[in-house]
Specification:
single chain, about 400 residues, mainly alpha, three-stranded antiparallel sheet, about 65% helix
Length: about 400
Amino acid sequence: MARGNVKREKLSIVKEKPRKETFYFDYSLLLVMLFLILFGLIMVYSASYYEAMTTASIGDPAYYVKKQAMATAIGFVGMYVVYRIPYQTYRNLGYIPYVLCYIVIFMIIPFGYEANGARRWIDLGGVIRFQAAEPVKLGMIVFFANFIYGYRKKLNDFRTMVIMLGLAAPVSILVWRLTENMSSALIIAAICVVMIFVASKDYKRYIAMGLAAVAAGAGAVYYIVWLSENAGADATGVRGERILAWLDLEKYASGKGYQTLQALYAIGSGGIWGKGLGQSIQKLDFLPEAQNDMIFSIICEELGLFGGIAVILMFIILIWRMAIIASHAADLQGSMLVVGVMAHIAVQVILNVAVVTNTIPNTGISLPFISYGGTSVCFLMLEMGLVFSVARGIRVTNYDV
């Protein structure tokens, strides 16, 4: 066969370029967080300007929102610093975060500052003032993430569970007794229990503990009702009266049930679409702590049921994004750090909404990122820095062809 008749085929070979690993950054999580913070600043101003304007010692309608904005700016700086630090660095701290929690709690004795009838703040010479429970929450998240990582091969042992619960209990009790902050004590306990529960593979014992806690709570309520009927409401104490008010708001409308009743009036009067931003009536000296624990009721009054559900959905998205980061974390320590932050925010949102709607007895719990409180927003953003740091440890592989 002639050489010219031979057809040669050219083979085209596509060479695959080397794969590149990049850092993961969750922009959806960042956008949701920024929305909640900015929305919180708007609602803090809306809920507080009348009180600030009519208080002789303040006289500035923007007083509360200015302080909240300053705390938010400090929180952003702290969040970025924590984000840039590899979270694996905290493994070397050992029991240091746990010991620091005790130091902060006991600082309330010499440096305690009383406000609204509670000694919950630490005042360092008037220059720095913060709520003691907030850094304790962060410290317990870091400590338990390290502890669970160190005992990852023994998490299903009953002895390990007892040790972890034994480490969490004293901190929660001290926060309750020394800072007179039962709600924060419950949140700290819930954070630790959720972290232990998620890390463990044997859920049965934790379910049994949960059922026992519910039974104990029901028994406590029954005892308080019995005591009030036989010895009077005064014999039940302050927290007992809150439970009695929860069961019968109208009977205690002039006492412990007043704040919750006003919150329900605000929610009911808002209807579906609300009265309009800034048009709340209840914040005009009817609803105490409108910009703090009860800000969700002002949201519902001004923006209606639609606004309240929208805020809850934003928190659900925030928690969902954190759950994705936790499930893809590079190691158990990173996963537990995110689970701890997620538990903190989720528990606090659930309890705040439950209190405002009278689903549970009234106790002081703020709405994360939205309620007024400089210490709360600062330490929440430090916690979010941990979440973004864990996300940064996730490697995403890209192929350039």
